[in-house]
């Protein structure tokens, strides 16, 4: 499910932004998220493709952000997961004699696009550098 | 699922707005949506509770909008279905030693609330009276 995956991706990237100086292992990230390392590795592969993280292999390897936390926003994260739009209309055979039925796909497509735009505009305003300000430094 | 239910609710209310002069039966609405009348009746019960539609019982009965189409917007429709916020964070036991883990629930709650607000603001701007303008009059 993309929503849980989005939350996990934000968690992982926030952890990497918070611990900028160190490489982090997928095992450590999995502990922080409280999930299976396999879930984290699958996610890291998507985040690498989207150029948000860089992985160094080997014994002392690990993951780090590819950019500064103020250059990554939650729209980048959302789009990296190629989510299915939750408001996207399904194609259904319309009732041909009913003008409302025949127009609904185009009406709901407009609503879906508008909702998606509003969501992405908000997510774009949320940078990782803002999110880590809310974490107490121990 | 609320997303499909939302699309169905918008379809039903758009049909009622387009055919304002007539009462419509749940069977006719079901034909237009291409779904089971039981689905429509369950939905009409929620829309009635939210004061969006009025049902007249009996042989010549049916459903109509309770208000003018320019007084109903898609936020009203969305909230009538009491949807679960798709971005809402799940409560997970955080890793106590990890400040990121301990902060994620509050961070994701803020993201969820912000996304929900942005979505509702867009939906509020979309009135039924606007939607029916896109339907060709035969």
Give structural attributes:
homodimer; 138 residues; mainly alpha; Arc Repressor Mutant, subunit A; 6 helices; 6% strand
Shape call of chain A: elongated
Structural class of chain A: mainly alpha
Q: What summary fits the major beta sheet of chain A? A: 2 strands, antiparallel
State Rg of chain A.
19 Å
Characterize the structure shown.
The structure is a homodimer of 138-residue chains. Helices cover 54% and strands 6% of the residues of chain A. Chain A has a two-stranded antiparallel ribbon. The first copy, chain A, has a single domain (2-134), classed as Arc Repressor Mutant, subunit A (Orthogonal Bundle), CATH 1.10.10.10. The mean pLDDT of chain A is 91. In chain A, helix 2 (26-33) packs across helix 3. Chain A has helices spanning 2-18, 26-33, 37-49, 74-80, 99-124, 128-131; strands spanning 53-56, 62-65. Chain A is mostly helical and 138 residues long.
State the gist of this model.
With 138 residues, chain A is mainly alpha-helical.
């Amino acid at each position: 499910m993309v929503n849980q995956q989005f939350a996990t991706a934000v968690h992982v990237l926030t952890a990497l932004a918070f611990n900028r100086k160190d490489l982090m292992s997928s095992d450590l990230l999995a502990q922080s998220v409280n999930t299976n390392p396999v879930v984290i590795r699958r996610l890291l592969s998507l985040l690498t493709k989207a150029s948000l993280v860089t992985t160094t292999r080997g014994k002392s390897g690990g993951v780090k952000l590819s950019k500064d936390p103020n250059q990554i926003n939650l729209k980048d994260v959302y789009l990296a997961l190629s989510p299915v739009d939750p408001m996207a209309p399904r194609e259904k055979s319309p009732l041909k004699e009913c003008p409302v039925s025949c127009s609904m796909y185009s009406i709901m497509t407009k609503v879906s696009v508008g909702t998606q735009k509003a969501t992405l505009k908000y997510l774009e305003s949320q940078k990782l550098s803002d999110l880590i300000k809310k974490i107490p430094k121990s």
